[in-house]
Specification:
The complex is a heterodimer of chains A (about 290) and B (about 300). With about 290 residues, chain A is mainly alpha-helical. Chain A has two domains: about 1-60; about 65-290, Orthogonal Bundle (MetI-like fold). Helices cover about 75% and strands about 0% of the residues of chain A. Chain A has helices spanning about 5-40, 40-45, 60-70, 70-100, 110-120, 125-135, 150-165, 165-175, 180-190, 195-210, 210-215, 225-240, 250-289. Chain B has one domain (about 70-310): MetI-like (MetI-like fold). Helices cover about 70% and strands about 0% of the residues of chain B. Classes of the chains: A mainly alpha (about 290), B mainly alpha (about 300). Chains A and B meet through helix 1, helix 4, helix 5, helix 6 and helix 9 of A and helix 1, helix 2, helix 5, helix 6 and helix 7 of B.
Chain lengths: ~290, ~300
């Protein structure tokens, strides 16, 4: 590449750096403020001293959260839903995508259309809700896991990936006397670790961040995942403001900041490490999408 | 193995193929059954949109009501407002949220310092991994009229506190700006990778011809990713009536309801909160059918465009 050192090029570079700085600030500043308030003393927050760094470092908000237990319980249930849900999602997706990637699988075209149609049209929220009730899943932890056991879109991404595995590899195994199950388990899965990790990550993010199904399928508030606990907390604060009792309780506001920060941390820590995989996943999806 | 023209032969062949691939069919079975119950089941359940359904009724011998609920929706006094609010949000999204990732990708592509480029890119994905609840909670806390940092800054500059979350004129800007914040980085992935496919020789010969880097960006990079941009634009415009209810439910409150309420939150409210299951389902079905039609016509359009763009 020829390096351009002219004045206009330097001005252009300056604007590019300015853009980079702006993006960094706009994305990080709100997150930093949440972090700082949650680790600042209540008095410093009440004075309005806290900006982008903790003032009078304190973990009181977090101690209150641990003593109260509600947020911890939400955290526990979030982990259960995310763990179980992602496991079921990944198994079902791989199990469905593998046969669908086989050219000579009988009824492949029909089954393919059968799955694809549901991406364009759905029965909607209320019939699904009534179905969950009828199946006696209402208020059980399975209501959080089974109705969304597979995303057709992710299954298609997985299938597309399986199709890129050279046929010779699987056919050689079949000729050597392995059945399809053994081929999937011994040949295909070890070759697809990265894609399976990507798909699992997509599912895990979805479970961790989900709140709506919890809000309609669960009536026991003890089973609420962290996101729903957080949402109810914020709703109460907003209701207080609207009824004119604003800021009578700043202490509980710092607890909201801490809860919010806890809810963001796991995904923020994980995503940079799996970045290259999800970028690939988006690409495969967009080619087929 | 000559393919037999007799149907009976084909049937035998199919039988043979099924026997040979029975393990594959067995593998796909759980997925097919799950899809039947949880995806096709609700479609059957959506028939209650044409009934006067009450809890405990069975659909087969339910009390049919024809298009009663659809008429009720179209003549509802809020119908106009709901359509207007839904379209406003999706059109504003199209105008303001759509171009940001394109511009971001173009500019980032010009950053020659690789580490900075990587850093900015990684940071820009961050908001995508933050949940909607967290983003809306963040808005509520940072924009809080008393303790939020935004209003503290406004007061420090001599202004007066604004109660953003309960304000009608601020609702849409907040919705759109937070949408941009959450999605621009992740949406840019597709453009950034389209840009890596642009042949370097184009830039080299342009700079030999004396084109500035800004000019190169406009005359080389932009046209090269234009097909991707157009396809994404068409896909987006297919979603015109399908504004997600989750974000609206999180931002909606009595004070801003007149601009916040959209078709899908209306369906949620009458259907699940007020228990008018049939009415809520009818509202959902109405938007579902329109969305489906939009997506299919948009698909045709894309096929048409990408065919012609080959020439």
């Amino acid at each position: 590449m020829i390096r351009d050192r002219s004045l206009s090029s330097r001005i252009f570079d300056f604007f590019l750096y300015l853009m980079c700085a702006t993006v960094l600030i706009i994305v990080l500043a709100p997150v930093l403020n949440i972090f700082s308030v949650s680790f600042s003393s209540y008095e410093a927050f009440a004075r309005g001293d806290v900006g982008l760094w903790p003032v009078e470092f304190s973990t009181r908000a977090y101690e209150t959260i641990i003593k109260d237990g509600k947020v911890l319980q939400g955290l526990r249930y979030s982990l259960i839903y995310t763990g179980l849900g992602t496991l079921l999602n990944t198994c079902l997706t791989v199990l469905t995508a593998y046969p669908m990637s086989k050219k000579d699988m009988p009824f492949r075209g029909i089954i393919s259309m059968y799955f694809a149609f549901t991406m364009f049209f759905s029965g909607g929220m209320i019939p699904t809700f009534l179905l969950v009730q009828k199946l006696r899943l209402y208020d059980s932890i399975w209501a959080m896991i089974v109705p969304g056991a597979m995303q057709i879109y992710n299954m298609i991404i997985m299938r597309t990936y399986f199709q890129t595995i050279p046929r010779e590899l699987t056919e050689a195994a079949l000729i050597d006397g392995a059945n399809e199950w053994q081929t999937l388990w011994k040949i295909v899965l070890p070759l697809s670790k990265a894609s399976i990790a990507t798909i699992s990550l997509f599912y895990a993010v979805g479970h961790w961040n989900s709140w709506f199904s919890a809000s309609i399928y669960l009536s026991t508030s003890e089973k609420a995942p962290l996101q729903l606990v957080l949402r109810n907390m914020i709703f109460n604060t907003e209701a207080l403001i609207q009824s004119g009792e604003a800021d009578s309780n700043l202490g509980s506001t710092t607890i909201s900041y801490a809860t919010l920060f806890i809810s963001m941390v796991p995904m923020m820590l994980v995503y940079p490490f799996v970045q290259k995989y999800f970028v690939k996943g988006v690409m495969i999806g967009s080619v087929k999408g | 193995m000559a393919p037999s023209p007799v149907p009976k032969g084909r049937l035998a062949e199919l039988k043979k193929s099924i026997r040979k691939n029975q393990l594959l069919l067995l593998m796909v079975l759980p997925g097919v059954l799950w899809c039947l119950i949880f995806r096709y089941g609700p479609m059957y359940g959506a028939l209650i949109a044409f009934q006067k359904y009450r809890v405990g009724d069975s659909i087969l011998n339910g009390r049919w009501a024809g298009l009663y609920w659809f008429n009720k929706l179209f003549s509802h006094r809020q119908f106009g407002q709901l359509i207007r609010n839904t379209l406003s949000i999706s059109i504003l999204q199209l105008i303001f949220c759509f171009p940001v990732p394109v511009v971001f990708a173009l500019l980032l592509n010009e950053v020659k310092y690789v580490r900075l480029k990587k850093l900015v890119q990684t940071v820009s994905y961050l908001p995508h991994f933050i949940s909607l609840v967290a983003v809306c909670s963040m808005l509520s806390l940072l924009l809080n009229p008393g303790s939020g940092i935004v209003n503290r800054l406004i007061r420090a500059c001599g202004g007066e506190s604004i109660y953003f979350m309960g304000s009608v004129p601020w609702y849409r800007p907040i919705y759109i700006l937070s949408q941009i914040w959450q999605s621009f980085g992740f949406s840019s992935i597709i453009y950034i990778s389209a840009l890596t496919a642009v042949p370097q020789e184009l830039y080299e010969s342009a700079s030999v011809d004396g084109a500035s880097r800004f000019r190169q960006m406009i005359t080389i990079s932009l046209p090269c990713i234009m097909p991707t941009v157009i396809i994404m634009l068409i896909l987006e415009s297919g979603k015109l009536l399908s504004v997600g209810y989750e974000k609206t439910l999180l931002l909606q409150n009595p004070a801003n309801n007149s601009v916040a309420d959209i078709i899908s939150t209306f369906s949620y409210r009458v259907g699940l909160s007020q228990g008018m299951y049939s009415f809520g389902t009818a509202v959902d079905l109405f938007t579902g059918v329109i969305n489906c039609l939009m997506v299919f016509s948009v698909n045709r359009l894309i096929r048409h465009i990408s065919d012609t763009s080959l020439w």
